[in-house]
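Severity: low
Component: inverse-folding endpoint
Summary: output formatting inconsistent between runs
Steps to reproduce: submit the following structure tokens with default settings.
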């Protein structure tokens, strides 16, 4: 397998910034469309990045999303500074959410973000440290 990185870009995400929320995943979607990645893959990467981005906006202080393309895959690593996740198994359950009333009124908090990332990626890892932050790593195959 050829793991050479053909494209790489890093994006900052600000916690609680609902004004700019979603812009990172839109940028990634546009990059992928522009270089001619097939729509099904663009769709899956966009969903995963959007959910990862929104979780930083909703639950963390700040984060960084690293996005890489190789010949065979799209690789995303997200790292945030924030409260971390106490129980990852619980957080991964469909429908589990600690979203506030205010967030729910904005349409967030279905508790499907992390399961969606897992289901739409080909490899998924999550790590978290209480009071420090959370790390996500996921890959989507191009072929
Ligand atoms: N980056 C993060 N930092 C801290 N907690 C998080 C983070 N991402 C997810 N969580 C926790 O995991 C729960 C489930 O996340 P998710 O499946 O995306 O659902 P939702 O965002 O709708 O709450 C969140 O409600 C939150 O408690
Ligand atoms: Mg979420």
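Observed output (run 2 of 3):
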């Amino acid at each position: 397998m050829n793991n050479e990185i053909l494209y790489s870009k890093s994006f900052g995400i600000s916690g609680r910034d609902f004004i700019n929320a979603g812009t990172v995943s839109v940028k990634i979607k546009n990059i992928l469309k522009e270089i001619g990645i097939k729509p099904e893959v663009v769709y899956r990467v966009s969903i995963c990045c959007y959910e990862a981005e929104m979780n930083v906006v909703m639950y963390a202080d700040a984060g960084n999303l690293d996005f890489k393309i190789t010949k065979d895959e799209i690789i995303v690593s997200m790292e945030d500074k924030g409260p971390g996740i106490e129980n990852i198994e619980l957080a991964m359950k469909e429908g589990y959410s600690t979203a506030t009333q205010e967030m729910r009124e904005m349409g967030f908090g279905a508790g499907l973000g992390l399961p969606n990332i897992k289901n739409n990626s080909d490899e998924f890892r999550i790590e978290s440290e209480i009071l420090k932050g959370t790390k996500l790593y996921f890959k989507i195959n191009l072929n």
